[in-house]
Amino acid sequence: MLRDLKQVRSIVFDLDGTLYKSDGLAKEIQEMAASLVADTRGVSLKEGRTLLRNSRKRLAELLEEEPTLTRTCLALGIEVPEFHRAMQSGVRPERYLEPDPVLQALLDSLVGGWDLYLYTNNSLPLTEKILALLGVESVFRRLYTIEFNWTPKPDPETLQRVLEDVGGPPDSFLFVGDREQVDLKVPQALGIPTLLVSETPDLLQIHKILGIVP
Ligand SMILES: [Mg+2]
Q1: How far does residue 153's CA lie from ligand 1's centre (Å)?
Q2: How much is the pTM?
C-alpha cells in the first residue's frame, strides 16, 4: 500500500531492536530479569528463569501476543521502577554496542528535514548510554523513556501524551519500530503511518517511503 507521506514532519523511533540489534545484550537483560525474579521470590536463579518463562507463556496465551519483558515482570509482582533500577545497575550495554556509521549517516540525513524522537520502554539512563555507544546521542529532539509516564508500550494514553507533546496531526508522524504489537499497532489505530523494521538495514527504507532520493 503506497501512502502519501509528504505530510510527515516527526519521526518517532523505538530503540531496542530498532536502532540496534544485539543478541548478547538481549540475553543479559533476560538474565537480569530472571535474577530479579529469583531475588524477589527468594528462589534460585534457575527457578527464577522458569518463573519468568512460564509467566511469559501465560501472558502470551492470554493476550494472544508476545508480552514485553516489563509486563511479564509486572505479572510477577515486580513494579516498573524496580525493574528499571535492576536493569540500570546490572545491564552493561558497553560490552555489546559500538558506534554504527550506517545508523549515524541515516539519522544525520533526516535531521535537517524532519524532527526525530525516541519512544522506548527503556529507562533514561540506559537509553542515553545506548545512544552514546551507537554514536547517535545528539540527533533526537526529545527522548520519551519509561520515566515519561511509567507505563510501557503499547499504551494508548501514553501515546496520546507523546503526540500532544510533539504536536501535529496524525499524518505528520511516522512511527518506526521492530514489534508490530508493541510499537506500531496503537499509532496505526489513530491513522499514523508506520514502518516495521526487522533488521537495522531495513531503516534505510525510510528514505524510500519519505520520497528522498539518496
Ligand atoms: Mg523494540
Answers
A1: 10
A2: 0.93
Q: Which amino acid is at 158?
A: T
Give distance in angstroms: CA of 19 to centre of ligand 1. Answer: 8
Q: Contact 186/154 with Cβ under 8 angstroms? A: yes
Q: State residue 12's pLDDT score.
A: 98
pLDDT tens for each residue of 151-195 = 999 999 999 999 999 999 999 999 999 999 999 999 999 999 999
Q: What's the gap in Å between 117 CA and the centre of ligand 1?
A: 14
Neighbours of ion ligand 1 (CB under 5 A): 14, 16-17, 178
pLDDT score at 170 = 95
How far, in Å, CA of 92 to CA of 5, rounded? 38
Cβ neighbours of residue 144 under 8 Å, at least 6 residues apart?
12, 117, 118, 119, 120, 162, 165
Q: Which residues contact 26 (CB under 8 A, 6 or more apart)?
A: 16, 17
Q: Give, in order, the Cα–Cα distances in Å from 158 to each of 21, 34, 151, 179, 197.
A: 25, 27, 7, 17, 22
CA of 178 to the centre of ligand 1 (A): 5
pLDDT more than 70, % of the chain: 97
